[in-house]
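Summary of Year 1 activities. Much of the first year was spent building the evaluation harness for sequence design. The harness presents a backbone, in tokenized form, and records the residue chosen at every position. We chose the following record to illustrate the format because it has been used consistently in internal testing since the harness was completed.
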């Protein structure tokens, strides 16, 4: 908080001083470096704080204890490592350190180490969701990050030790995920499924989708049987096309009276009219 207050005071000083506003960037390096130094201190203290939160969460997860009445989940650790990576991204973008190759390399090496931890806990989240292929892919990526960070020689010895321990955890986790995927394939081939407590396994498929499988499903006899999914899932259907006849009013159609018989009717009507006129004396010209 002290660093934050100092940064705010320095920014106000730069904003309120007219000389600093008009001065070129080449004549105010000391103020820029002072601002970058204060921001560096604030970000490093924030990273240390987040690392302590990570340590607390990891210890609670190993001991299966709760923090503030809540059980620690892999998602919580993933979020903490994501915050740390955001802090390191801000460290990379500090003004005055863009062209410092050694500084940028040190930050990038530390970021690879933290990316390895993030991928590891993302893999655990995917394992809990029974998405084993994605979990193995994330573990493989985490292993690559650990190898790169160790090869580049991390400056933080404590972080280096954690990365070395993570390499062993990744290998064991790979075997666990592979075993879980094999067990799930075996369970799908069985006619009846049972949980570890001996109770029948509740199939998520509705009965209408597995009519060709014989299975003693006690869930069908309950008040909420899984027979058909309601409402049914939406399916894509072909769209009914709409036609607009825009040229109808500009087309001259041919006369088809001779083909439809309308012309014969007109001739017949004209003949009868002439016969009546001739019989009554109409239409005669006086000469």
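For this record, the design step produced the sequence shown next.
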């Amino acid at each position: 908080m002290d660093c934050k207050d100092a940064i705010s005071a320095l920014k106000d000083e730069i904003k309120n001083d007219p000389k600093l506003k008009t001065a070129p960037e080449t004549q105010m390096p000391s103020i820029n470096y002072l601002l970058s130094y204060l921001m560096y201190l604030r970000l490093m203290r924030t990273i240390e704080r987040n690392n302590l939160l990570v340590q607390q969460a990891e210890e609670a997860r190993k001991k299966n204890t709760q923090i503030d009445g809540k059980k620690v989940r892999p998602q919580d650790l993933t979020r903490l490592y994501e915050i740390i990576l955001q802090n390191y991204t801000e460290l990379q973008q500090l003004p005055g350190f863009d062209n410092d190759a050694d500084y940028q390399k040190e930050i990038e090496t530390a970021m690879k180490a933290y990316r390895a931890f993030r991928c590891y806990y993302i893999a655990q989240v995917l394992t809990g969701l029974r998405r084993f292929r994605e979990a193995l892919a994330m573990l493989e990526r985490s292993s690559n990050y650990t190898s790169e960070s160790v090869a580049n020689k991390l400056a933080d010895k404590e972080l280096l030790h954690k990365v070395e321990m993570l390499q062993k955890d990744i290998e064991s986790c790979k075997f666990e995920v592979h075993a879980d995927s094999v067990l799930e394939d075996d369970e799908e081939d069985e006619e009846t499924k049972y949980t570890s407590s001996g109770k029948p396994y509740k199939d998520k498929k509705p009965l209408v989708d597995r009519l060709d499988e014989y299975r003693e499903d006690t869930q069908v006899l309950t008040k909420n049987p899984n027979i058909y999914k309601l409402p049914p899932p939406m399916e894509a259907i072909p769209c009914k096309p709409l036609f607009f006849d825009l040229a109808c009013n500009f087309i001259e159609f041919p006369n088809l009276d001779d083909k439809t018989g309308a012309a014969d009717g007109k001739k017949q009507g004209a003949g009868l009219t002439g016969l009546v006129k001739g019989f009554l004396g109409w239409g005669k010209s006086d000469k």
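Residues 17 and 23 are 10 Å apart (CA to CA). Quantitative recovery figures across the full test set are reported in Table 2.
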